[in-house]
Amino acid sequence: MTSFTLILCFNLVDEHFSICLPRKTLICSLGKTPLGVEAEKLRRATLALLITFICSLAYLPRTGLVCASDGAIYIRSDGSVEGTAYIESGDNITYVFTADIDEPIIVQRSNIIVDGNCHVLNGSGLVGVTGLHVDNAFNVTIRNVDIVGFGSGVVLSQSRKITVTENTIRNCSLGVVVHSTSQENVIVGNRITDTQAGVTLGMGASNNTISRNIIENEGTYGLRLSGFTNTVVGNNISSRSKHGDYAGLFLEDFIGGKVVGNRVEDSRVGIWVGDWAESNDVAGNTVLSNFYGVYLTNRSIYNVVRGNYVVQAEEYALVSHASYNFVYHNNIIAGANRSVLVVEGVNFWDNGFEGNYWSDLASADLDRDGILDDAYVVNANNVDRFPLAGLFSEFNATSTSYVQVVCNSSISNFHFNGSAIRFYVAGEDGALGFCRVCIPKTLVGEPYQVLVNGSEPDYVDYMVFDNGSHRWIYFEYVLSTREVVVVAEFKLPQILLCFMVATLLAVIVRGRKRIGYAGC
Question: Average pLDDT, whole number, for the chain?
Answer without folding.
Answer: 84
